[in-house]
Each structure stands twice: as C-alpha cells, then as structure tokens.
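Workshop exercise sheet. Pairs work together: one partner reads the sequence aloud, the other fills in the structure field after running the prediction. Swap roles for the next sheet.
Pair: D.N. / O.F.
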Amino acid sequence: MSVKSVILGLCIPALLSAAGTDTRLADAAMRGDKDGVRSLLKQKVDVNASQGDGATALHWAAFQDDLEMAKLLLAAGADVKAATREGAITPLFMACTNGSAAMVEALLKAGADANSTKSNGTTALMIAAASGSADAVKVLLDHGADLKARETAHGQTALMFAAALNRAEAIKILMQRGADAGVTSSVAKLERVVFDVDGNVVPTSATPAAGAAKAADANEQKVATSGENPSSDTTPAAGRGAGRGARAGDPAANGGSGQYAPRQVGPSYMGGMTALLYAARDGQLDAVRELVAAGADVNQVSTGDKISPMVMAIVNGHLDAGKFLLDHGADPNLASETGISALYATVDVQWAPHAWFPQPITDQEQVTYLDLMKALLAHGANVNARLGKKIWFRSFTHDVTWIDPAGATAFWRAAQSTDLAAMQLLVEHGADPKIASTSGDSPLMAAAGIGWGANFTTNAPGSPMPAVRYCVELGNDVNAVDARGYTALHGAAYIGNNEMVNFLVEKGARVDVRTKAGDTVADLANGPNRFGIPHPETVALLEKLGSANSHNCRSDQCLVAPREDTIRRAPAPVTPPPPATKPGTKEPGKGQ
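Structure field:
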C-alpha cells in the first residue's frame, strides 16, 4: 500500500468525524450486514445519517429489497422521506424500481407519499409501472397515487412508462383504474436543421418550392431537389478542365440551374406521443395488444408529425405490430406530416439504406414485408399514394444519393430497390407504374441507377435487369428526362451496367443526350463526382455507341489511382553501364 493511500485512509474518517458524519449504519446496510445494523441501532447511532450522496440505511434496505432490515430501521425512526442529493430519490423509489409491493406497502404505511416525485417530476407510480409489477402499482393506487400525473421533462404518464417497456400487466391495472390512453406527451416544434450536400447549414427560408422542374429554371432558387448530383463536384463537363471546381450545392456547378434541396437532419417535432405510439415505436407487442384490448384508439396520430401507431411501428421495422394494428382497425391510408403511408413505409423499411446508425431489421418478424403489403392492399390501402418529402430519419447527414423521392409511390420505391416481387404485387392491385417523382424521375430511372449511392443504397438481391425490363414493359419512356436532364441511360452508365446500357439503347434510348449541367452518358460512367466509381468498360461501350466523352473524371478514385490513359509518365531513367574491369581481375559477382 502506498504512503498516499495510508494517509488518505487515516485522514478521511477523521475528517468525516470532525464534520459530524457517521456513515457506519448506512455502510452496513449497503453491505447487507443485518447483524451490524442491529448492533449499531443498539448503540443509538443516528438512523438517518447519510452517505456522501445522501443515501441512508433505509435507502439501501429498500434497494436490496430487505423488508426485515427496513422494518428494523423504520422502528428506529428512519425517515421515509429522506432524499438523495442528486435526483431527490427517496427509499420509496428504490422499492418501486424493484417492483416490490411489500416494501412499497411498508414505506407508505410509515408515511411515504404515494405522489412523491424525483427532481425531474417522475412519480413513484411511473417507476412502479416501468418495473412491470401490477401489485406495486395497485398498492400505490390504493394509497392515492395520481394516474394523471406527468413528469416534467417530457410530459409522460405512468401508462406511457409501462407501454414503452412492454409492461402488459401494469398497463392492464392502470387502464382498469382509469388511465387515459388518449393523453399525449408534451410536444415541441423544433427548429429545422437542414444541410446542403457539402454539409453547410441552409437557412430554413431556403426551403424549396414545390416542384423541382420550376426551380430548375429559376436561377435565383438555390435548392430544389434532394441529394448530390453526379456532376456536382466540378463545373459542367463540356469544355471544362479536369480539375475539381465548384462543389455540390453551388449553382455555378450546374449552370445556375439550382439543383439541390436541403437535407433535413432530425425531426420537425418532438413528443406528442400516446402510450400506444410509444409501444408501437419500440415493437412492444404485449403492450400494443393490452392497450388495444383496453380501448386505445389505433388511429390516434401524434400531435406533432401526425404519425399513426401503425406507420410508427412499420418505419421502425416492427411488422408484426403493424399487422396486429391493421387487423384491429388501423386505417391503412393515414399518412404522416411528411406523407409517409403504411404501404410506402413497408417497402422503404425493407430496403432501408446503409447508414452511420443502426437501421431497422425485419428478419426476425413473423410477418414478412410482402405479407404486410398484401394485407394493407386487402384493407384498401391507396396503391398510388405519394410521399410528401424525403424521409429524414433514413439518412441524417450520411446520404450520397442524388435523387429526391418526394412525390414517389410505393411502386417507385420498390423500383428504386429493384424489388421485382413488390413491383408486380403493386401492379396486380392497380399501381400506376409510370408515376414519376415531383422532380420528374420515373420508376425506370430509379431502377436504372439514377440516385444510386455506393455503400448507401440497398437493392434486392440479384441483377437489377428484371426490374428495369419490367418498367419498360409497363410503358416507362426510356428517353424521359427529369428536372436536371437525366435519363435512365445516365443511371445505367453511372452504375456501370453494360447489359442495361445495351438493353436501353436497343429500346431506343438516346446516347447523345446531355444533362443541364452538360454531362453526357459517358461522363456518368467516368466517375462524375467524388463518390462516383469510374467504369472504363462502360465508358468505352458508350463511346462506341456514339456518346461524347469529356474525359473529366471527378471521382476520388481518379485522384488516388488515375487511369492508365491519363497518366503522364516521365522518361524512363537510363541505366548506366557496368564498370569496366581490368584483364585478369575478378568481375563483380563472379569467381575466377
């Protein structure tokens, strides 16, 4: 043991004694030393002496659910209202955390307040509900605990605590005693934070007007559609140098057309949730069942972003909960403030993009996404319902796509993920396979690769060709142009799919088309932005088919590993001749 440790060991008790603090009883209770507690009580040690954080012996007895020790302390005059310095936690909260009805009863009989609160307004009933102990909840209610009380941080009730943690038995008691499942937590409208594709904060006043096509013709409008344009890392390809120029979001990089929309980071609202919404969000199926059985409104939306319990469950990957709610009266056509309906959400969650945070996983759900889609359609879901705006919670700032899904249908979203099975199912139920997004991107463009982002986009397993062929068979125009001048062939070039290129050209796709930024289809195959992957074979194919090539690779790969035909090599060094040797001498490396 060091000298420092010895000195501290000798000094600390002396300082505590000098300060009049005797923690022996609390320490014994903390250790569970019942005999030590009895001995100290006989010595008339202060039963309410606390440790440094304010915890008394009674706190520790309640924490350890030692009813015998608690009764010894109470008989000696332990203060049931003693609170810790941080959080104002009383022994009753310790008992409620354990869900110990007997301990709760003992403390209440000794004078504890059934409506006592911690420093953040959390009540003992909320803690008991969170523990799941129906008996502890009953005891508190029998002693006058307030069902309507709300904690001060978020305005949540005891019913919400139980719902979020899947405490079905506690929910049953609370509802039987009169808890209101229609109460919502407090709601706050947040200041929207939006970023352009460079990560610069965009003033909310720059929110785009509806319709990217109109914005594309307005030089003053700086933002219109979402995501990163493949031609965004430099000035237009035609007639420009190969070095990096203007960055994404700079109108000069796109001929002043204003190609970009802000990407929203975080929600517009926080709160406004019912107990059922909390249960649905976390996939707490037992809680969902109990709340619905007790009469909770399955169609009550949040007071902020207007999301329904069924959509809340689906967007978080809880398909089983979504199906249960559908079977118990949930309206399949309720859409959130951003226009997310259950059908679109089901396709979207199945193919959620890769991100820097965990995305929902549906593999362990009993209900598959196709099963849920079929059920939604059977219950009258609008097969052509359109998304209002880009879903903020799928990407945050890590988003390298360059397409705006605003205005997209479930069929469009399935096409984007090249999910042929979902596309066919939707068409069988009346989906219009030619509805384009607000920005003019058709399902064919989405399937062909417009907006595709490496290490971000998630596609159905296998080749994208069946989905592309299906879109063409259903009448999608191979030469349709979106608000920025992209065609399906630009997408095929960007992902370097030669089979798709040949197919689209055979179907009449023009190879001489240019975007409004000046990019040809060959340019799209040639690493048109920092995240683009150069595809030399596709470039060669497109040149052979008649596309111009600006030889303007802007990909990081071109900077790190330039293509062979772009490297300027220095003249090879001349190797000097070996040194001359005298007759009869030994040459280097050789014997006599």
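Discussion prompt: Residues 24-181 form a domain with the Serine Threonine Protein Phosphatase 5, Tetratricopeptide repeat fold (CATH 1.25.40.20). What would you look at next?
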